[in-house]
Specification:
Number of helices: 9
Number of strands: 4
Distance between the termini: 33 Å
Oligomer: single chain
Radius of gyration: 21 Å
Strand content: 5-15%
Shape: elongated
Number of domains: 2
């Protein structure tokens, strides 16, 4: 196996044969990507049984194109996909200062087409809370985002500490 420039694992023909010989459950290989050198005619039954199978055809696309394509493939319930994340975040605000900060940040998120990311993070926090999963208090540049604080991603109030959102979004 090797990794492509996007960090995805690419299976070569010998990797696929090894998996075949091990009798792997095709469901465990969901999203498997095989190298273009794999002769699909020699193992079509096996590969067709793998959910979301794809042969690597993205090696010529740019990193921004790859990110844009993946921005459309968030796996989350429909209620989160349809969530008006801006209204939700603004509804969490308790003061005029919080409304101003969230509004300014949400405009920056919108400019970068990151609302799906915010929806997914909301879903992730809800799943972790409902399953009593503990996550960290926050670290790195993400703590500069007051929106992420309001969503519960971290516990550092960037408004209180006067942290600049540009530290996160640069």
């Amino acid at each position: 196996m090797k990794q492509n420039k996007f960090g995805e694992m690419i299976f070569a023909e010998n990797d696929v044969i090894d998996l075949l010989m091990q009798g792997r459950d095709p469901g465990m290989l969901d999203g498997m990507i095989v190298d273009e050198s794999v002769d699909l005619n020699r193992m079509p039954d096996f590969l067709e049984s793998i959910p979301n199978f794809q042969q690597q055809r993205i090696h010529n696309c740019s990193v921004p194109e790859w990110h844009n394509r993946n921005q459309q493939c968030w796996h989350m319930p429909v209620e989160y996909q349809n969530l008006d994340i801006a209204a939700h975040v603004l509804g969490l605000c308790e003061s005029e200062a919080e409304l101003q900060r969230c509004g300014a940040e949400l405009l920056l998120y919108q400019e970068r087409d990151l609302f799906n990311l915010l929806r997914y993070l909301k879903y992730l926090v809800d799943v972790m809370q409902s399953n009593a999963i503990i996550w960290g208090v926050g670290r790195g540049s993400s703590v500069a985002s007051f929106v992420l604080y309001k969503l519960g991603i971290h516990r550092i109030n960037s408004l209180y500490y006067n942290l600049d959102i540009e530290e996160f979004l640069r």
